[in-house]
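Fold this complex.
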Amino acid sequence: AQSVTQLGSHVSVSEGALVLLRCNYSSSVPPYLFWYVQYPNQGLQLLLKYTTGATLVKGINGFEAEFKKSETSFHLTKPSAHMSDAAEYFCAVRETGTASKLTFGTGTRLQVTL
Amino acid sequence: GAGVSQSPSNKVTEKGKDVELRCDPISGHTALYWYRQSLGQGLEFLIYFQGNSAPDKSGLPSDRFSAERTGGSVSTLTIQRTQQEDSAVYLCASSPLRVSSYEQYFGPGTRLTVT
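Structure:
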């Protein structure tokens, strides 16, 4: 069975500071990994994904994440936070080669302060 | 193009009533998923449809929940005899399932409140 752990249900950073949101997964097979963002009263929007190939993946809005198999991690980063980044972020895992469900972490709410 | 749409956006119902939630996936997407998002449980998978295959119902929490997908497109999630614990946001997602694209595209959700 797959699982996803997101450390820190709430993260607060100052505008312009580094954003680091942590995600660790467990999976019995090589996973596909995703980060989604959810703004208030909206659905989930895909930020970025890792399927195969380059382990450092870039997404929208300046976010990127690195797949580290040895650490079973897929942490999300952004060099400089913007006020508009305030939202809830979800890490998700899916088994490779299947059209199966996503298993989500519990989410991290990012607050950006002046 | 148009994204995943869901209706209604909000639904308030009395305990014990039945409700139907609708999802229109992105045209051409063969896979359709329902998830539930609630404060206590986070994001939970409910059910998954792929083409003409039998749906994966492994996430449905009880037999009061059912879903169908007609003509490989629109899907309806039905909750019978609603309970207060059914209050949540119900999210629908679709996926094209191309080898190069496994991501799921989510709709805005239906917020269900059971009073």
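The mean pLDDT of chain B is 91.
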